[in-house]
Amino acid sequence: MPAPAPRKNHKVLGRLSLPERTFVADALRTETVGGVLLLAAAIAALIWANTPIRESYESVRDFHVGPAALGLDLSIEHWAADGLLAVFFFVAGIELKRELVAGDLKDPRAAALPVVAALSGMAVPALVYTLVNVTGGGSFDGWAVPTATDIAFALAVLAVIGTSLPSSLRAFLLTLAVVDDLFAILIIAVFFTENLNFAALGGAAVGLGVFWLLLRRGVRGWYVYVPLALVIWGLMYNSGVHATIAGVAMGLMLRCTTRKDEGEQRSPGERIEHLVRPLSAGLAVPLFALFSAGVAVSGGALGEVFTRPETLGVVLGLVVGKAVGIFAGTWLTARFTRASLSDDLAWPDVFAVSSLAGIGFTVSLLIGELAFAGDKALTDEVKAAVLMGSLIAAVLSGVLLKIRNAKYRRLWEDEERDEDLDGIPDIYEQDNPAYHLRMAEIHERKAAEHRRLAEVTGGASEGNDGPA
Length: 468
Hints:
Helix 1 (18-49) packs across helix 5, helix 1 crosses helix 6 (167-191) and helix 4 packs across helix 6 (167-191). It is built from 17 helices and four strands. With 468 residues, it is mainly α. Strand 2 (64-65) and strand 3 (74-75) form a beta hairpin. The protein has two domains: 12-193 and 242-416, Na+/H+ antiporter like fold, CATH 1.20.1530.10; 426-465. The strands form two sheets. Strands 1-4 form a two-stranded parallel sheet. 71% of the residues lie in helices and 2% in strands. The protein is globular and about 85 Å long.
């Protein structure tokens, strides 16, 4: 009986396939622009809330609008958190669906790494927060605040510091954020839902059923789905379940696979995500930041961030817990699945990206509002802690990534090189005989041009030397 073949090691964070690389590049391009807008909105909110015109900020933020008869007489801040973020979570739902059916999460073996890393990156910050508050006698209500990662803000940091991060690390960060969003959604649904209105919840479920049926029947037209989505959102809000759950549910229902027999180039989910993502990244999330990040910041307030257990737990959870949790989850997954890290990367690269995930801006602010809803002063202090923790994580990761940037730039240039100008990076054609034939022809043509140039130059030199 022949001996069993040894199990082949697989590479962790290896080169992406060309279609996956193209998708990741397109998705991150929009998120990067949105992240810059998010950063600008957060800075604007802080300036507005800490200048002599801060009363106007509070007046706008607390201004109520909406039909009271439908239970939707909400403040602007509330509309931003429950309404606009539903668009953000709708896109997150589509991203998750795509990852499950066509991305890294489709293959259980490949999915193990980002899932374990994301879970570790949520569990360790929660543990750090809990330990700090056990020893300091603080409230455990904010344990979930440091568990989230803000991909848009993280990409904005990359854009600002100009780091040429390889596509494999960018894809890892994106997948981490998708899984992170899934569990953040579950945390919001399970731990921040109370006083359920079963009639409204049942109505939302019926609406979602109609939404799903229309999708299965192939019904098209925004004038059908947008009004239905608004009804579902309103019912979900009145049910007591956080309204953003409606966005996730509808995103997960979209089909994210193409039907080749029908000549589809892009799936419905991909088309809709392409349309809605700029709205989410460029409008919804920045407006949420504008009306949520405006907290009064002073020297004394910043000092209290590091002395009060609730706020210190948030800062340490984001800065230490995220980096340690994601790095440990990645290393352990590689260790126990007999995987090895890509030859182009080293474990310090993984730690640097793990520290970048400590930027937990958007969802952390949302969970902070939910966790301490009855204490406005503590809510503002926790928001300040989220800002401080995210800032420290951004600076730390920026320094770590800058140290390695020369190596990243070489990897990025190798990924982008396209000497035969066929639109496909050369690195993906190295095993194609036709590619090598084209490259030989290109090199021969260049050599012939150089020989002709040398002959012309030489002839001109001789002609000039004669009269002299």
